[in-house]
Amino acid sequence: MKKILKALLALALAISMVLSLSGCGGEKRTQLKVYNWGDYIDQSILEEFEEKYNIDVIYDEFATNEEMYAKIKAGASDYDILIPSDYTIKRMIDEDMLHKIDMNNVPNYKYIGERFKNLAFDPNNEYSVPYMWGTVGILYNKTMVKEPVDSWKVLWDDKYSKQILMLDSLRDSIGITLKMLGYSLNTKNDNELNEAKDALIKQKPLVLAYVGDEVKDKMIGGEAALAVVWSGDAVYMKRENPDLEYVIPKEGSNIWFDSIVIPKTSQHKKEAELFINFLCEPEIAYRNADYIGYSTPHTEAMKMLPEDITSDKSAYPGEGDLVNSEVFEDLADSLVKYDRIWTEVKAQ
Amino acid sequence: MVKTALKRIYTFLIFLFLYAPIIVLIVFSFNESKSRAHWTGFTFKWYVEMFKDQQIMTSLYYTVTIALAASVIATILGTIAAIGIHYMKKLPRTIMTNLTYLPVLNPDIVTGISLMLLFILVKFPRGFFSMLLAHITFNLPYVILSVMPKLKQLDNHLYDAALDLGATPGYAFRKVILPQIAPGIFTGFLLAMTMSIDDFVISFFTTGPGVSNLAITIYSMARKGVSPKINAVLSILFAGVILMLLIINNRMSRDNGRKENAV
Amino acid sequence: MKKHLMAYPYALWILIFIIVPLALILFYSVFSIDAEGIHFTLEHFRRVFEPIYLAVFFRSIKIAAISTAICLILGYPMAMILASKNLSKKSLLVVLFVIPMWMNFLARTYAWMTLLEKNGLIATIMEFFGVELPSLLYTENTVILGMVYNFLPFMVLPIYSVLVKIDKAVLEAAEDLGATPIIVFRRVIFPLSLPGVSSGIIMVFMPALTTFVISRLLGGAHFTLIGNLIEQQFLTTMDWGFGSALSVVLMLMIMVSMGVAMRYEKENEGGGLW
After folding, report:
1. Quick check: C17 and B20 CB within 8 A?
2. Residue B101 to chain A, least CA–CA distance (Å)
3. How far apart (Å, rounded) are the C-alpha atoms in residues A245 and B49?
4. Which residues contact B103 (CB under 8 A, 6 or more apart)?
5. Is the four-CA dihedral C147, C150, C155, C160 of positive or negative sign?
6. Which chains touch B (3 or more CB pairs under 8 A)?
7. How many CB pairs under 8 A join A and B?
8. How far does the CA of residue C119 sit from the closest CA of chain A (Å)?
9. Which residues of chain A have a CB within 8 Å of the CB of B68?
């Protein structure tokens, strides 16, 4: 036993030494550090980029905007490319954490659909290039919900007690409650927020669970009748279980964006812009959208996707469907209020 | 007779409890669809995709390397520390023991963020070594907590007897104390490996670009959906560990057999 | 050589990797940093004692205590059984006991969902026998189940390592003196195993108190526990001051309660908090 331990130790030390030495081998090629969500890129694209431009791509993944933000804010690492969500981008812009992108170096930006430009969090298109987008809506099982679903209020219906799945995400859940009540999901108004809190507390006994990704398997498996989900997941779920249908309620909802940004910690701005441009090449954008399965803002890529996907309102709603929908804004100091509400709701 | 039967049943039930989810995990690594709950058919495709997935393969490599290195180092340092603490006077011992508990007491997020801030403060580069140091830090208390009870159980007279019989302190230590606390060292090592192999939060905040472990890769898939590729890599990890276990066990029983024959 | 000197390298380690980060947390808990600069404040601590947060504390302590107790009740016999096997099988079984914990926590918890949900494996099997089960998932008991599942090895292993070397001669002497097995256990085995038991309790109770993934996934995020709350502060709200204050109060609560518990243990010289 001791011999084996000694052998393991020697091995471990040897590996550590080799690793540290390989790091000091001197700069071979330029390195581009990318930080993205998990399973959110077609990896063959990275390999192609490396070959075409002779740049090494170091690719890391994060699980939530907040964790990524905490690391970047603290200065933990010098990533060149980040792909955060809308409200985080707004916060980073406000805190001067991002470089302005020189759009002259990203000519392929022209392929991004007009309605995805000049978004609330980046009105002059200076800091971000959209990557994927989608909506939040209600996914319901047609065999369990016999009436037409067109309003958030159905999630407060006693009939569906313990058949409802809500998102375990403060902004999403409080946001849709505000929408149900007819308010903006970015409101800072105390009265409106209190109404939302009361509504959520009233709803709690009806909620089966506040979930994250596991909602997919649950709805496919018929564990619940109604769920609040993201559109990208809705497309997948509908495919796996044809009894499911997705709808954006008439009160309006949230449109979300994950966009590419360049943090100020980046040492390779030119290469980063090159990468963004590469991602916006029609063929590349199409392959990426095809792999990820979420909705792409790239017009040419859309044309290359199969007809049955691009005509699916769940994935690609028209402008008319999104009339009352909003993008998340950074709440700044009011975030504390939302956090309090969420804690109070959960502490029941 | 009844007692043995009861013991066997109890052991079986507990192990069933522990392994039920693992079996489910492995079974679903062969599932045709991405679902973790509905079986639609048998396939090897997830294993194929897993081997092609750069992220997963690199993460697996770092997971095993860091877990092994951190556990071994923590076991050695922890054992030495535990012995040292055991022989201290009451007050310093109490202080040291209490301080040792702090990483266990703190939520992962607090340990992770505070270590990250520490590394940034002293400009220690974030990467493989910062993650290693962080792992050693949270492994140490578990080793110490495992070895200390054995030290308390120690019969000091044996050590003194050995010295009286002419052994040098080093020899007496190696041949008398160490074997007596060996079960503690062994369980400490196991617990350290357990903590390291599956750590997400602390690893996430203390690592640098290009160095990810399996837990980070898996948690970051949570938003999109944990693919059965993960079931596949975990099944491979499981199979690998069981295999190593059988090999070691085989060698050990052969050694024991030889010892018995020699006697 | 003076044996206690062996601890000094570790003392240095503690200084760097435990005390400094702790100092950072204490700093954040009593200072508030904003546009005007850094000022001392007790506001974070005051907030901790609001009823809504205290409720979260107590619920967490309750669940962690129940989970620890169950781990002890289930784990002690298991440790005894493991300690009594012949040599080679013993170590093998112990390692086998721990290996499930090496499989990713998230994946294992998802597997539990597969087992426990309405149309899950257990329900399907029970249906076959015509038994209808109440909801197994998303209750407080599910969270306790998850905790026991994840922390059982941390209770079993320390107890096992202590039981394994209880001097057989002492046990035989007790029996010779006329003690029944029950008395042998109560008066000899159990007291001798206490150092292992207290290690086990520490290694289970504390992580149980601060974990957040179990309550999120198996509890359906219905119950906010102190771990969820702290995580929320550090990440979502970015209110590190409040998060740090919560952590500090948690640490103090634990140290005080364990200190009180340790007072009742005579055998325990310096084995635990206080």
Report:
1. no
2. 26
3. 30
4. B111, B137, B138, B140, B141, C18
5. positive
6. A, C
7. 122
8. 7
9. 8, 11-12
Of A20, A40, A76, the CB nearest to B126: A76
Nearest chain B residue to A42 by CA distance is B53
Overall average pLDDT of the C130-157 stretch? 89
Cβ–Cβ of A214/C110 closer than 8 Å? yes
- Which two tokens mark A19? 């690793």
Confidence of residue B84 (pLDDT cuts 50, 70, 90): confident
Q: Which residues in chain C touch residue A223, judged by CB atoms under 8 angstroms apart?
A: 117-119
Asked if A58's CB is within 8 angstroms of B210's CB, the reply is: yes
Question: Which tokens hold the place of C48?
Answer: 């901790």
In a 13 Å sphere around the CA of C158, the CA atoms on its Cβ side amount to 32
**Would you say residue A20 has pLDDT above 60?**
no
Q: What is the pLDDT of residues B11-60, one digit of tens each?
A: 999 999 999 999 999 999 999 988 887 888 899 999 999 999 888 999 99
Residue with tokens 């998340």: A328
Average pLDDT score over residue span B166-174: 81
Contact C33, C43 (CB under 8 A): no
Cα gap A164→A224, rounded to integer Å: 6
Q: Residue A224: exposed, middle, or buried by beta-carbon count in 10 A (0-12, 13-18, 19+)?
A: buried
Query: Strands A81-82 and A129-141: what pairing?
Result: unpaired
Q: Three-state SS for A84? A: coil
Query: From CA C247, how far away is CA B113, in angstroms rounded?
Result: 13
Structure tokens at C174: 């007790």
Q: Is C215 exposed, middle or buried (0-12, 13-18, 19+ CB in 10 A)?
A: buried
C164 touches C90 (CB < 8 A): yes
Other beta carbons within 10 Å of C58: 11
Report pLDDT for A306.
92
Q: Is the CB of C224 inside 8 Å of chain A's CB atoms?
A: yes
Burial A17-31 (b: 16+ CB within 10 A, else e): eebeeeeeeeeeeeb
Select the residue of C117, C216, C235 nearest A70 (Cβ to Cβ).
Answer: C235
Q: What percent of chain A has pLDDT over 90?
A: 70
**Tokens linked to B184:** 């503690």
Please tell me if residue C240 touches chain A, with a CB cutoff of 8 Å: no
pLDDT attached to residue C266: 43
Q: Give CA–CA dist B55/B76, Å, rounded.
A: 32
Nearest Cα to Cα of residue B217 among B96, B21, B57, B25: B57
A78 touches chain B (CB under 8 A): yes
Interchain contact, C216 vs A168, CB within 8 Å: yes
Q: What is the ipTM of this complex?
A: 0.84
Contacts of B113 in chain A (CB under 8 A): 70, 74
For residue A296, what are its two tokens? 């792409």
Task: For residue B192, list chain C residues with Cβ-Cβ distance below 8 A.
Answer: none
Indicate the burial class of C217 (C-beta count within 10 angstroms; 0-12, 13-18, 19 or more): buried
3-state secondary structure of C71: helix
* Chain C contact for B216 (CB, 8 A cutoff): no
Amino acid at C273: L
C252: exposed, middle or buried (Cβ count in 10 Å: 0-12, 13-18, 19+): exposed
Q: All domains of chain A, ordered by start, with CATH?
A: 28-133+257-310 (3.40.190.10), 134-255+316-347 (3.40.190.10)
Task: Show the tokens assigned to B93.
Answer: 């011992």
| 8-state DSSP, A157 | -
Residue B10, CA distances (Å) to B6, C81, C101, C114, C196 in order: 6, 9, 20, 24, 21
d(CA C244, CA C230): 8
Contact with chain A for residue C190, Cβ under 8 A? no
Pairing of strands A226-230, A326-327: unpaired
HEC assignment per residue over A21-34: HHHCCCCCCCEEEE
